[in-house]
Amino acid sequence: MVRVLYPGSFDPFHNGHREIVETAAYLFDEVVVAAMCNPQKGEPLFDLDERREIIHESIAHVPNVRVTQFARLVVDLAKEIDADFIIKGLRAPSDFESEMAQAQMNLAVSGVHTLFIPTATANSYLASKFIRDLVRFGGDVSSMVSEPVSKRLQEKYPR
Prior knowledge:
There is one protein chain. The chain is α/β, with parallel strands linked by helices. The chain has one domain: Rossmann fold (3-Layer(aba) Sandwich). Helices cover 43% and strands 19% of the residues. Strands 3-2-1-4-5 form a 5-stranded parallel β-sheet, sandwiched between helices. α2 links the parallel β2 and β3 (65-70). α2 (48-58) runs antiparallel to α6. The longest helix has 18 residues, at 93-110. The mean pLDDT is 93.
């Protein structure tokens, strides 16, 4: 059985993230999606418990996926869950540079390899930061996120 770890802040979880989960679930036996604290990204819109619930609801249709949360090193979680690989999504060539450096560091300290999965062009423009900004100012993001995410965003920012 091949188990992969898909870590990210997922604040909020959008259709690009969902696409990566669905692709990984097709390719591997088990996918563990892990919502994480990332202090470099500032104050989160959703806390970890909310993100875990949102992700779970958004991918409930995918049977070989489980969702967790963490606030420590990705490689420590990878070892804890016995992940064979870490997976990361790539939207654009610019993502590759930073993700590759991180993948090399993770490999050096843990021996866990990272695999990159590119998003489809239809989702390549999606970024949680842009979605947060759009919804804050009254924009409609319902085509960019699942229904559970859209509902919670509307609760945070009623029109």
